[in-house]
């Protein structure tokens, strides 16, 4: 056995190392099978290489014969010479040198690898550029081809050879095509011939409108003339599709949620055929233009061809593996186009039921929602779930054009008869019109908020466009103005169609009704909900309808101030692209507390002390005097930011928190849907939709309900990291899913509870009625009626109390009195399943004999949407059912209470976490939108951005970039470079809550140019003071001041700050302006001596009436003969001294008070206003001086001042001179300043108006006074 211990290894190893003084254990021992000795492998291999024999016995030995021995290597002691301190230091030095050498080698290898990687990246980037250029050329060629096709009548291109690979989509991706062999040359030629014929006919017609076409003014007078609600089952209400027979417009085709297809004759007002066979609801129907054949499609993945005359299905086309969403008939009438949720469109032969071709766009990967043929039949359009409209070439089976622009799944498309226009509708409450010649959107019809577009259709002439959805709207083409609007449907309108030459309009909806509109008078027979050959309502009888109320859905929109930056068509001075500035224009800058959508740190409703106003004012004075940036806009520079790919998100987040920069769009020609981070933006938008659902559920179901909107989070959270966003997404989706499930269960339980309570009420209220009801005695014993089928039957249920009179009247008239009807009110009020209101339902019990009358009664009950229940004939069965109902009601109440408790737990959890989620997702979305403005570098290692930044804030900018890199763990910091700008920088004024209102007033008239003097600083005093000059009143001023002071103290209250009322937001934004206006009004009101338009007696009056009696100017005869007495100030003692402050209160007793005060106020306003204007013109001196425009001082400023002062300055001089020069004794001789001012402009002289001073005429007209 080849076993050896350590001692043997050591002993035998010494024989191969006789000259070694140490007895060392071999490192790699091995055994020789020739001598069975153990050797050191290194030494024995060397010996064998020299001698080729075993050193012990001299027999031949080779290296292959050696056998290794596995041993545990002991730690060898160091040599005695290595135990000294110098030896240890030397060994450490050697190890350090070895480590440094190894590190240097690794660095060299890393540098070499980097160079190789950089070279490879450059090659890859060059290849990508070449590929992009080629793709662009291919796309341009396809667009040119698609543009030429409509203009050239869609002339067919050359046939594709069989060896040619599969066609590519619009994006260059190959598309999966199955059964292409079905498109034979004969079929293609047939399609081409039909397209040529149609194009020729359309050219012959030209732009002429048929003479029989209804004019727009006549169309606007259309009203509803008929409504039919009995076509489809009431148990599964809703008509989902509609079509009119082109050859016989009296026949209307409908497809319902009850899986049936119905052909209805409009003139006869009866059903022609009811076609049954689909396993699911019918979503699309088409009437063949020349044959008695109809087509239908359903989510059961089948397309059925029906014979109207035979009433049976003649063909089933199975072209798809998922729900069929769209159906269109080719102009030849032989082929069908279908679209499906399986992402395929199919072209099928209706004669054979064979699928000729089936195509999908691999690059899109989304479901198709609708499909429609072009009038010529060679191209067609499809709508997708990702808001795209795709135009396809049928012969080549390729996607030739795409129309992006909608923001929701496309629901309907329609081609105009002229072949040039395409109308599309989507779930974004808009209808877009596309020009197929220019391949662009030329008109967008924006509908009401939450408007759902379900159907679009042009009339046969292409003159009118009908839109069906939340209501029915008809637009006239080219002007695209609304002609009429119908809101008769109580549910969603799912189909709308024109009659021949638009002579009538028909519609169908989810309210199970088919309605017709034209200009004829309304007739009662067409208003009935049903009609049978045996029975007709009496003439003039109408039924009163009570449509359920529809609550207007709340529309939550995130504006620019709520973390949604958008590009507006504004001049550069007022455009804002910063996502971190709520409601901020380029010419303004908020303080840090308003940069994010956040509240104060003190929590909602926190009361601030009155010193806050003084702090803001002192801060304003500091910036004005020390910094000077409020007097003149701040210096702004253009910077280029280089953001590392790994840290770009955090860098932009830091910049947003500081609010330092305004980004520029470096991709102006790139579509918003093609930008790099559009996927992340959509992800945030989906989260916002989830949050909107959670908020709606909170407002709808939380008990007790919130008294105000959800409070903002405190403290305001930062933008989430990508992994945190995933957590938010998962938790929000889970919470929303649980809420949907629990709410659905809660609503289902409530509906069941209501139904059971209704059933219980029916049995309880009618129990005493049925005990005595038996067949009429006159029928007993007669042979004619002696039959077993004559027995008493019952129909019992509940009806809304509003419908009871019309319901009872119609039952009596329809059944000719052969029924017995009893109505009783239920004792308890129950919830209405549709509106949620509490209703005291009315129980009815109908007793009848015979099946025919029973069918009529049931139809009438269905028409009135009553809730009917099974009614046993025996008393024992009814009592047994009552006992069972009581137990089920108690069980459902128990389960409902537990469900409600769990729902409240979910809602409270949503209330606690939703505000933080909303703010964080809004910040994340804003960051992604900013990143979309950036341009990637050549190597795609970093993002390049350009932004405007205040020069004084550049150090903070660099600090923010470093902090963003630190948070990301990036080894390379982001940095910036200053760039020269060819365009003037934006105007930037630092603002706070105090100055924002005044700056907004100035910006409303015009934003100052870059580095111009800011006039808003001076309007802080001048604007409120000018207001007070005319408004001055102490009482009203106090009211204004107190109201404004309350808004200032409560400005951090979220309830006030987040109010959406426009008037309130305007007042709240100008709270400091209103405060100053009130304070100045108190001051000027004290001058006018008015408080609520009443005089105030603060000091003794300077006027006395005693001297007038003493001088015998007033006596008894004067008092008796004069209604008004005039006090003469020239009489000694009448006027002693001026009033100490303001106007003497005695003027309140004068009959010329208004004349005096209005003249005084007007003159003071003129004086202050002219001083204000002159000061504003003088401010331009500082602008000219700053920009070095010295010539403008002499040729613009000085002429302006000369002209202004020569006219308005002279007017002020005359006012002041008249006040000073004329004493009370001379007041009767005082001239009219207004007449003098008019004479100055007319260069005339008025002798009746005395001169104000000597040489006045010469001064005014430069002519001597003769």
Describe the secondary-structure layout.
Layout: H1 6-15, E1 29-31, E2 38-40, H2 41-51, E3 67-68, H3 85-151, E4 176-178, H4 185-205, H5 216-219, E5 223-228, E6 239-244, E7 251-256, E8 260-265, E9 270-276, E10 284-287, E11 293-297, E12 303-307, E13 312-317, E14 324-329, E15 335-340, E16 344-349, E17 355-360, E18 368-373, E19 379-384, E20 389-393, E21 398-403, E22 410-415, E23 421-426, E24 430-435, E25 440-446, E26 453-458, E27 464-469, E28 472-476, E29 481-486, E30 493-498, E31 505-509, E32 514-518, E33 588-589, H6 611-627, E34 636-644, H7 648-658, E35 662-664, H8 678-701, H9 722-766, E36 792-799, H10 804-814, E37 819-825, E38 830-831, E39 838-839, E40 842-849, H11 851-863, E41 867-869, H12 875-932, E42 935-936, E43 942-950, H13 954-968, E44 975-979, E45 989-990, H14 996-1005, H15 1016-1031, H16 1034-1049, H17 1054-1057, H18 1062-1069, H19 1071-1088, E46 1090-1091, E47 1094-1095, H20 1106-1110, H21 1116-1121, H22 1153-1186, H23 1190-1221, H24 1233-1242, H25 1256-1261
Parallel strand pairs: 33-45
Antiparallel strand pairs: 1-2, 1-3, 4-17, 5-32, 6-7, 7-8, 8-9, 10-11, 11-12, 12-13, 14-15, 15-16, 16-17, 18-19, 19-20, 20-21, 22-23, 23-24, 24-25, 26-27, 27-28, 28-29, 30-31, 31-32, 34-43, 34-44, 35-43, 36-40, 36-41, 37-40, 38-39, 42-43, 46-47
Helix pairs in contact: 7-12, 7-13, 8-9, 8-12, 9-12, 10-11, 14-15, 15-19, 15-22, 16-19, 22-23
């Amino acid at each position: 056995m080849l076993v050896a211990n350590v001692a043997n290894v050591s002993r035998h190893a010494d024989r191969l190392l006789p000259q070694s003084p140490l007895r060392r254990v071999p490192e790699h021992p091995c055994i020789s099978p020739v001598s069975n000795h153990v050797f050191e492998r290194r030494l024995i291999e060397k010996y064998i290489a020299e001698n080729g024999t075993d050193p012990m016995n001299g027999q031949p030995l080779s290296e292959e014969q050696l056998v290794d021995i596995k041993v545990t290597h002991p730690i060898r002691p160091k040599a005695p010479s290595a135990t000294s301190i110098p030896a240890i230091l030397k060994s450490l030095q050697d190890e350090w040198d070895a480590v440094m050498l190894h590190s240097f080698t690794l660095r060299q290898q890393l540098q070499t690898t980097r160079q190789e990687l950089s070279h490879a990246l450059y090659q890859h980037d060059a290849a990508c550029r070449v590929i992009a250029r080629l793709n662009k050329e291919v796309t341009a060629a396809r667009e040119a081809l698609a543009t030429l096709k409509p203009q050239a009548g869609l002339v067919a291109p050359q046939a594709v050879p069989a060896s040619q690979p599969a066609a590519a989509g619009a994006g260059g991706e190959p598309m999966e095509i199955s059964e292409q062999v079905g498109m034979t040359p004969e079929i293609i030629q047939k399609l081409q011939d039909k397209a040529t014929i149609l194009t020729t006919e359309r050219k012959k017609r030209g732009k002429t409108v048929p003479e029989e076409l209804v004019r727009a003014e006549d169309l606007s007078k259309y009203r509803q003339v008929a409504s039919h609600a009995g076509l489809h089952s009431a148990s599964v209400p809703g008509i989902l599709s509609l079509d009119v027979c082109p050859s016989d417009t009296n026949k209307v085709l409908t497809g319902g949620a009850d899986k049936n297809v119905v052909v209805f004759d409009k003139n006869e007002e009866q059903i022609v055929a009811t076609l049954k066979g689909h396993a699911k609801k019918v979503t699309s129907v088409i009437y063949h233009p020349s044959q008695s054949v109809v087509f239908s499609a359903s989510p059961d993945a089948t397309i059925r061809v029906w014979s109207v005359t035979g009433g049976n299905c003649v063909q089933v086309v199975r072209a798809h593996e998922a729900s069929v969403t769209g159906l269109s008939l080719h102009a030849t009438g032989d082929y069908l186009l279908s679209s499906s949720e399986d992402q395929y469109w199919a072209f099928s032969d209706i004669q054979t039921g064979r699928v000729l071709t089936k195509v999908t766009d691999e690059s899109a990967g989304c479901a198709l929602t609708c499909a429609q043929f072009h009038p010529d039949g060679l191209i067609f359009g499809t709508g997708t779930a990702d808001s795209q409209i795709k135009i396809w070439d049928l012969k080549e089976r390729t996607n030739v054009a795409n129309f992006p622009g909608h923001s929701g799944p496309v629901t309907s498309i329609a081609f105009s008869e002229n072949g040039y226009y395409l109308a599309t509708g989507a779930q974004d409450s808009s209808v877009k019109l596309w020009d197929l010649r220019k391949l662009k959107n030329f008109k967008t019809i924006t509908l009401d908020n939450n408007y759902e577009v379900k159907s679009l259709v042009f009339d046969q002439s292409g003159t009118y466009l009908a839109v069906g959805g939340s209501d029915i709207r008809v637009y006239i083409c080219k002007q695209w103005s609304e002609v009429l609007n119908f809101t008769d449907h109580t549910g969603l309108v799912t189909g709308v169609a024109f009659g021949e030459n638009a002579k009538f309009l028909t519609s169908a909806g989810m309210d199970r009704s088919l309605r017709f509109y034209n200009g004829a008078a309304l007739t009662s027979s067409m208003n009935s909900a049903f009609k049978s050959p045996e029975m007709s309502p009496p003439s003039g009888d109408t039924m009163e309808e009570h449509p359920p109320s529809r609550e207007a859905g709340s529309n939550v929109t995130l504006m620019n101030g709520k973390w949604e930056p958008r590009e507006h068509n504004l001049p550069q001075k007022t455009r804002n692209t910063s996502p971190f500035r709520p409601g901020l224009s380029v010419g303004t800058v908020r303080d840090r507390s308003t940069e994010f959508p956040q509240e104060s740190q003190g929590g909602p409703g926190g009361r601030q002390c009155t010193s806050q106003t003084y702090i803001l004012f002192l801060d304003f004075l500091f910036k004005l005097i020390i910094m000077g940036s409020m007097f003149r806009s701040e210096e702004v520079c253009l910077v280029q930011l280089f953001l590392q790919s790994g840290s770009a998100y955090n860098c932009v987040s830091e910049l947003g928190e500081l609010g330092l920069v305004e980004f520029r769009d470096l991709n102006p020609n790139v579509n918003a849907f093609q930008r790099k981070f559009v996927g992340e933006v959509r992800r945030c938008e989906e989260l916002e939709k989830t949050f909107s659902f959670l908020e709606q559920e909170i407002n709808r179901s939380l008990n007790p309900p919130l008294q105000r909107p959800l409070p903002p989070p405190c403290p305001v959270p930062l933008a989430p990291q990508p992994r945190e966003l995933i957590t938010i997404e998962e938790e929000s989706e889970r919470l929303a899913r649980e809420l949907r499930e629990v709410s659905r269960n809660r609503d289902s339980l409530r509906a069941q509870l209501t139904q059971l309570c209704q059933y219980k009420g029916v049995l309880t209220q009618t129990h005493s009625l049925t005990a005595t009801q038996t067949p009429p005695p006159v029928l007993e014993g007669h042979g004619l009626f002696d039959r077993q089928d004559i027995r008493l039957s019952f129909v019992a249920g509940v009806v809304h109390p509003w419908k009871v009179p019309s319901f009872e009247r119609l039952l009596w008239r329809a059944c000719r009195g052969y029924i017995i009807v009893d109505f009783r009110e239920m004792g308890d009020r129950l919830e209405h399943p549709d509106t949620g209101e509490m209703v005291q339902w009315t129980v009815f019990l109908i007793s009848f004999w015979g099946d025919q009358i029973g069918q009529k009664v049931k139809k009438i009950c269905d028409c009135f949407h009553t809730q009917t229940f099974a009614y046993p004939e025996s008393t024992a069965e009814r009592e047994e059912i009552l006992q069972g109902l009581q137990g089920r009601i108690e069980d459902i109440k128990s389960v409902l209470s537990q469900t409600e408790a769990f729902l409240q737990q979910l809602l409270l959890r949503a209330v606690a976490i939703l505000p933080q989620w909303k703010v964080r997702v809004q910040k994340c979305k804003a960051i992604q939108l900013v990143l979309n403005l950036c341009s990637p570098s050549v190597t795609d290692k970093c993002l390049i951005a350009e932004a405007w930044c205040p020069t004084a804030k550049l150090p903070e900018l660099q600090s923010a970039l470093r902090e963003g890199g630190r948070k990301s763990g990036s080894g390379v910091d982001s940095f910036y470079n200053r760039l020269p700008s060819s365009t003037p920088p934006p105007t930037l004024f630092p603002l706070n809550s105090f100055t924002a209102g005044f700056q907004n007033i100035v910006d409303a008239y015009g934003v100052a140019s870059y580095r111009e003097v800011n006039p808003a600083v001076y309007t802080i005093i001048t604007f409120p003071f000018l207001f007070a000059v005319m408004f001055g009143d102490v009482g009203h001023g106090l009211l204004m001041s107190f109201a404004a002071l309350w808004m200032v103290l409560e400005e951090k209250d979220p309830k006030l700050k987040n109010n959406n009322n426009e008037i309130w937001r305007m007042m709240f934004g100008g709270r400091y302006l209103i405060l100053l206006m009130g304070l100045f009004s108190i001051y000027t009101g004290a001058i006018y001596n008015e408080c609520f338009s009443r005089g105030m007696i603060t000091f003794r009056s300077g006027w006395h009436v005693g001297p007038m009696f003493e001088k015998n100017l007033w006596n008894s005869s004067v008092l008796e003969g004069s209604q008004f007495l005039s006090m003469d100030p020239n009489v000694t003692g009448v006027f002693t001294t001026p009033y100490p402050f303001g106007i003497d209160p005695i003027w309140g007793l004068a009959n010329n008070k208004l004349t005096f005060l209005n003249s005084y106020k007007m003159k003071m306003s003129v004086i202050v206003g002219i001083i204000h204007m002159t000061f504003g013109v003088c401010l331009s001196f500082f602008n000219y001086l700053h920009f070095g425009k010295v010539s403008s001082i002499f040729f613009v400023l000085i002429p302006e001042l000369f002209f202004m002062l020569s006219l308005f300055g002279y007017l002020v001089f005359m006012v002041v001179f008249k006040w000073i020069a004329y004493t009370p004794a001379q007041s009767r001789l005082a001239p009219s300043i207004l007449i003098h001012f008019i004479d100055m402009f007319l260069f005339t002289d008025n002798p009746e108006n005395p001169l104000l001073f000597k040489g006045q005429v010469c001064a005014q007209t430069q002519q001597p006074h003769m």
